[in-house]
Amino acid sequence: MWLTAPRPTSVSVRSGPARLTGRDPELDTIVDVLRQRPAAVLIEGEPGMGRTRLLAEIARRPEFDGGRVLVGACQPLREPFPYGPILEALRSAGDAPLGPLSPVAGVLRPLLPELAEALPPRPEPLADPVAERHRVFRAVRELLTACGPALVLLDDLQWADEGTIDLLRFLAGSMPPELAVVAASRIEPDVRPGAPLRTGPAVHSARVTLGALDVPAVRALAAELLGLPRVTDEFAAKLHECTAGIPFVVEETLRALRDAADRLPVGEVLSDRLLENLEVPVLLREAVTERLSGLPAPAVRLAGAAAVLGVGAEAGVLGELAGLAGDELRAALLATLSAGVLGEVGEVGDSKYGFRHPLARKAVYDTVSGPERALLHAQAIRVLAAQPVPPLTPLARHSRAAGRVDQWRHYAEAAADEAIARGETSRAIDLLQSVLAEPGPAQSDVGRVAGKLSQVALRGFRPDVLGTLEHVLEEVTLPPSVRGSIRLSLGMLLVRTIGQLGRGRLEVERAVGELVDRPDLAARGITLLAQPIDGLTPLSWHELWRARAGEVYDRLDDPELRLALTADRIAAASHVGDPSAWAEFEALSDTVGTVAERVQLARLWCNLADGQAWAGYLDRAQRLVTEGVRRATDAGALYAIGLIQGTRVRLDWVRGQWSGLAETAEQLRGSYPELGPIVMESSLVLGGLAAVRGEFAAAERHLSAASVHAPDRGPIPVVLSAAGVLISVRLATDDVDGACAVADTAVAAAGRKGVWIWAAALVPAAAQAYARAGRWPEADNVVEAFARGIEGRDAPVATAALVAGRAVLLEARGKHLAAATLFDEAASGYGALPMPYPATAMRERAAMCRLAAGNRDAVDELSAAAEAYEQLGATRDAGRCRHQLREHGAWAPSQRGRRGYGSELSPREREVARMLAEGRTNREIADGLFLSPRTVEQHVAKVLRKLGARSRTDVAHKMPADVTTAPAG
Asked: Do residues 723 and 715 lie in contact, with contact meaning Cβ atoms separated by under 8 Å?
């Protein structure tokens, strides 16, 4: 028996339709056609593709404001009204004066009583029904002609009566010269669309078939309906997958997610489990139920069987589950296809049938009674297990739904093994987690499953795994080697977690002690402890572990483990500037066989990209990033994929590729909120960008998130770089004491760690702060300690930074010409990497030194620096240079030339508008752009006038889309 399962009481509130998204090309094409009269457009699409929304958008277009817009729609009635949509549209034709009408138009009086006063008297009816019908057609055309410029929008023509279709064909054959008609009709997924209305050669026409939205359009719609500034790529891709990109389904799913926002983490990760727990939106449920209600009983059984099976299947498999065969099965399948309940899924030619999207399946599944579901799940196990290659994940799901727990554990673990072999990390973790969460298995089974989970978890980063592994270690008695293996993975995962570095290293050391009988596993812990990049533990301590790793390596036989230790050794050497690292990498064989070995190679490429970036080999790092992403994706190394995104945004920052970078870094940080390296690296980039914009409060917040005030908790290269940026921020606001306080902490951290190449961004800034404070011993000592620390290291960025630090000291002592020479040398060093922002800063300082020495020719150098800053987007720095040029009596306008902007905002006005939208005062804008208060007042007045803003607070609502404020800190 097929019954509707009882549902809890719920209230669903709709706030009106969302903005039309993803249809701009179609809309623009339609409008272009309709502006050339006469015109006819046919819009077709499967249910839910947004035909009605598109018609409404056409009606609102300003291009049609000068004429009538007449709207009608067909209704799903058993006996449609004759000419229903056309008469509905014509009822409002008399809202404005009509042109002349002949007596024939009077035939419409009984049909359009609303226009009785405007129509001629009704002529005597004709005896011949066909002639009378022809007279009605002529009258409609004459009335449309009398309307002058008119746009007729007709929706849902699939429900139109034959008379309406004939009338439209009559009009299409000889359209009034100022008429445009848009007709929309539904096409079913498995029904070939009909022929379009045939128009005469003088009619401009188009046929538009609406397809599914793409991922960017789904992302935009999600951000709007969820009220978020952005959603992650993963969320958008998953939402697109589970809704098939059908606008109606996307919108209803998002409304359901929004309604459940108090208990679901929307906007970040859209998981299969979340979707399973999500209530099917009311309108979607009603749409599916309506289609089911029109099906014969065998077709309903077939749809229910498909919903329980949950995956696309051949007709015979579905028939076996539903108890159908032969002609009865064929008829039932055709009925479900015709109604759009089922459709062909998979690759073309697979002959598999299922649901277009998971929520449609769930809506049908919910109509099946509980006892019937259990029987169908049990039958599904029998059918699927008999296949030549049994599908393990579906078998696990059906076993659990049928209440067969032991069978479920068997299939779930086997499916996890399969997922691990295929590199499907997330699926494997989900399956193993579910097995461990279910009470009842033997301790030996728990140890085995937890061991698998601990290993595969290292490929990704799932914070929920930490609790599972900790629970197993606390509650289950395990052999030392099993316990040590699980503890080792737990420690390695903790090391990646914000604030858990120390605890993670302690767990790894404990694991190494427990793994005395498993030197192969102990080697993994030893090589992790040899990695120096995190925390304040001195390099010498890590080198002791590195030597021990080398001893263990020679005793290993496992190719994957030997490759893992080799990868870690090369990456660690690269991070500390060891000249041998790159040569060893180039000599390494690139031929591996297993997925595990591919994961290790992907890790190497990603970690080496990070090391080479910190050393200053930026082009090399960029190539490693591109290839590393490809390798990690192929191998399912999710953690490496996430980690390398941090390297990528930092590379874009130092290489001066800032367009859209703040948004990218903000999204990356939101995607991995608990993954320490990514959060801190993204925060460093956001802090650097905020500092360049003069948004110093935001810069402080971001740099604090980069662990600048707690160097023991983060990657030291990030911490020291963040300190360099923060020192510059505080010096820019004349907070010399605050700058020195940051320098004291960071310089002590660099000295304790002992890897000075990571202090390349710190040392010139620290020397500047100490010199301004008159702390000359500290200024000299930090530069000389840096010089000793980088000696013999392979790090071109450190070489450039040393020259910059020495130039800072010379400038501070008034030796301007000597300083200018070194600043030029530093600029060349940074430029060769390339790092355009510090290179430009060095050129600016060289020019300022020469000006201080009385060399007036340096104004050209300073002007060139201003131009370079502007090209980067560093408008505050450019403003500082322009200000200095004015101070030296050498105003140099931008060499790109001046132009008139009319009603558009000039570049300077756009900058002022952005700062106004952020709530800046005139004084703050003047300080940020190095302008006089009077000049700022003039710019503010122009911004208000050009934007039509009533006040300063109204600017944010009036700004063009391409003038954006900075992301919130």
From this structure: no
Question: Whole-angstrom Cα distance, residue 58 to residue 518?
Answer: 71
The whole-angstrom separation of Cα 293 and Cα 297 is 9
Mean pLDDT by groups of 10 residues along the chain of 969 residues: 43 59 88 93 89 91 90 87 92 91 94 92 91 94 94 92 91 92 78 56 90 89 80 80 86 78 46 63 83 92 94 91 94 92 82 87 91 92 89 92 92 93 88 89 86 89 89 91 94 86 91 89 88 90 90 86 90 94 92 85 93 96 94 84 90 94 88 83 95 91 91 91 96 95 96 96 97 97 97 96 97 96 97 97 96 91 93 88 83 49 73 78 73 76 76 71 48
Structure token pair of residue 118: 């405007």
Instruction: Report residue 232: phi and psi, to 5°.
Output: -75, 160
Q: What is the DSSP letter of 14?
A: -
Kindly report whether the peptide bond that precedes residue 834 is cis, defined as omega within 30 degrees of 0.
yes
Among residues 151, 200, 154, which one has the least CA distance to residue 174? 200
Strand pairing of 352-354 and 343-345? antiparallel
**Token pair listed for 519:** 């030197």
Identity of the residue numbered 414: A
As a whole number of Å, the CA-based R_g of the chain is 35
- Surface-to-core class of residue 792, CB atoms within 10 Å of its CB (0-12 exposed, 13-18 middle, 19+ buried): exposed
What local confidence, expressed as pLDDT, does residue 962 receive?
Answer: 57
Tracing tokens 């009606």 back to the chain, one arrives at: 59
CA dist 601 and 632 (Å) reads 8
C-alpha span between 572 and 530 (Å, rounded)? 8
| CB contact at 8 A, 777 and 814 | no
Q: Which two tokens stand for residue 140?
A: 């409609």
pTM: 0.64
What long-range pairs does 805-811 form, CB within 8 A, spacing at least 24? 805/763, 805/764, 805/767, 807/764, 807/842, 807/845, 808/764, 808/767, 808/768, 808/771, 808/783, 809/767, 809/771, 809/779, 809/780, 809/783, 811/845, 811/849
Cα distance between residue 652 and residue 322, in whole Å: 57
List all residues 6 or more positions away from 503 whose beta carbon is below 8 Å from its beta carbon: 494
Q: 353 φ, ψ to 5°?
A: -125, 145
The secondary structure of residue 286, as a DSSP letter, is H
Contact, 927 vs 938, CB < 8 A? no
717: nearest Cα among 559, 873, 539: 539
Is beta strand 343-345 parallel, antiparallel or unpaired with respect to 313-314?
unpaired
Tell me, what DSSP letter sits at residue 103? G
Residue 233 CB coordination number (10 Å): 14
What does the angle CA 605 – CA 610 – CA 611 come to, to the nearest 5 degrees?
95
CA distances from 825 to 272, 616, 801, 830 (A): 57, 16, 10, 9
* Structure confidence at residue 890 (pLDDT): 64
Give dist(CA 197, CA 165) in Å, integer: 9
CA–CA separation, 244 vs 250, rounded Å? 8
Asked if 738 and 730 touch (Cβ cutoff 8 Å), the reply is: yes
Is there a contact between 549 and 530 (Cβ–Cβ < 8 Å)?
Answer: yes
Q: What size, in residues, is the chain?
A: 969
Separation between Cα atoms, residue 758 and residue 767, nearest integer Å: 16
Fill in the DSSP letter of residue 874: -
**What is the DSSP pairing of strand 313-314 with strand 68-73?**
unpaired
Q: Could you tell me which of 499, 507, 498 has the C-alpha nearest to residue 528?
A: 507
Query: Residue 791, CB half-sphere, CA atoms under 13 Å: how many?
Result: 6
Q: Cβ(519)–Cβ(555) under 8 Å? A: yes
Type of residue found at 458? L
What pLDDT does residue 758 have? 97
The Cα–Cα gap between 893 and 366 comes to: 70
In the prediction, which pLDDT does 15 show?
53
